[in-house]
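Record format v2
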Amino acid sequence: MVDMSTALASMVLPNPVMTASGCAANGHELHRFFPVSELGAFVTKTVMAAPRSGRGTPRMAETASGMLNSIGLQGPGIDAFAKEDLPWLGSVGARALVSIAGTTAEEFADVAERLASSPAYDAVVGVEVNISCPNVANRGLVFACDPVSSERVVRLVRERLPEGTPMFAKLTPDVTDIVSVAAAALRAGADGLTMINTLLGMAIDTDLLRPQLAGVTGGLSGPAIRPVAVRALWEVTAAMREGRLPTAPLIGVGGVRTGRDALELVAAGASAVQVGTATFHDPSRPRRVVDELEAEVARHGFGRFTDAVGIAHDRTARP
Amino acid sequence: MSGVVQVAGELIATRRAGAYHHLTIVSPGVAELARPGQFVALAVGGATSANLLRRCFSIHRAKPSGTYGGTVDVVVAAHGAGTTWLTGLRPHDPVDVVGPLGRPFPLPADAVPCVLVGGGYGSAPLFWLAEALQARGCQVEMVLGAASDDRLFGVVEARRTADGVVVTTDDGSAGRRGWVSDVLGDVLDRTGAGVVYGCGPMAMLRSVTEIADAHGAVAQVAVEESMACGVGVCMTCVLPVTGNDGVTRMVRSCVEGPVFRGDRVRWDAFADGVCRVPADTLGAPSAGGH
């Protein structure tokens, strides 16, 4: 019997497996396949202040072991989310990790404040601040590409969230030095970090010889990017172990399809793991990864899941 | 959202049908729930597949009980890696099936004459629909069109099922040379149809809607949008549709559709192989885009 519970700052979860934002809508759809309360947490689709149509289509292109998406943060807006989706998640016993975004730092903070005033706020176990969605019209608005912008957004959100609400900043790997962005987010009051968002990519239709996506570029996800996630988790964890960064919990995301994939992110330093694009392949995947990861932890003889977190740093062969 | 199951299915029959492949898959639980117009989402390539996205197919037939248990039939055109994998399966190979998905074709309350229009293998769900309509006392005529004879699907079945059948091909290799839109108006006049059901390429569905409108009939069309998941979580299969409140929204064809009233679809948004977000859509981007 393995203890699969995990603690991410003050957020204590019965198991470390979550959905990934934007890969699971807001729960109703997957609840037809398994009770979403059986996941450690349910990460909602990024919500912004106002309703948002998203982009035109095609919004999606399949790539080798992955896909590009160019949704454009379609969503109902924070008020509809707080009134309809969040109470539903609470009613089925889900632990909601709510992903929020804005086109300005002030909008991020406004969304956080309106979320916190929801009567269903009890269902919220934490907030994930999506400062790294690549599908925005202006690349300059990918806050997580710049430590100063990241710090400003995270600080404003922190001010508007109730004290004690765990807050995670979601980072992009599309930066020269992810450790400096991680440092900025933690300095601004993030309790932990989620890594990684999609990578900016592009595909061309070789019959029409034009971009496949209506939005031209999109976010690359799926097993193809898992090594990038492992590397990002590794670098940030190493910086924490060496004292270059304050120690904080990491949520790993990127290309997880199986329990073994999840273990890879855990061994690099993740205290929880999100299942994203694999959910499109198999709507039961997040739930299956809960059992598969437990079997993997048991296979290695660990009594507690947390014993495996970051273990690859201890087992690295020294030259 | 209606009932759906995910089952480890098994292919039990595969045969060629002109340019297409007709697959029968044992998928217990799916057939019992399915209605005409709904679809299944199939995983392709096996457990370690590099093709992660589900392939969605309109259900051609659903048989709740048979020698092997419930089966669903789908019609596949092999034009990419996933569909080629599916058409290469042999009997007894496993296929992961999620279904039934989406909203079915609504059936009229009264026994009105209906015309069913299929483009290419878009005709796949129409025979099952025809039987459901006939069971309600509706007279059913079918119009089947395709680029060429080998790209028609189900002409023999149509002649057996429907009260009248008109076939068109672009090249004249079967039936009348031309498009379904060339003949549909006459069929509507002759039958006095109250409902037109359409399934096929978007350009055809737009024509079907316009002709139905001009003849005082309601068009119910099953749209083809590429989907990543089929179950409502990926937000890729959206299109602009106007609701009862007069507001246009980008809605998911896998959950809110795939069947829509034709006059609610914003056909003006489709051009040059892309669908733009109409400016009056709820939450449409201001200058600069999303």
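Chain B has two domains: 5-101, 114-275.
The domain at 5-101 of chain B is CATH 2.40.30.10 (Elongation Factor Tu (Ef-tu); domain 3).
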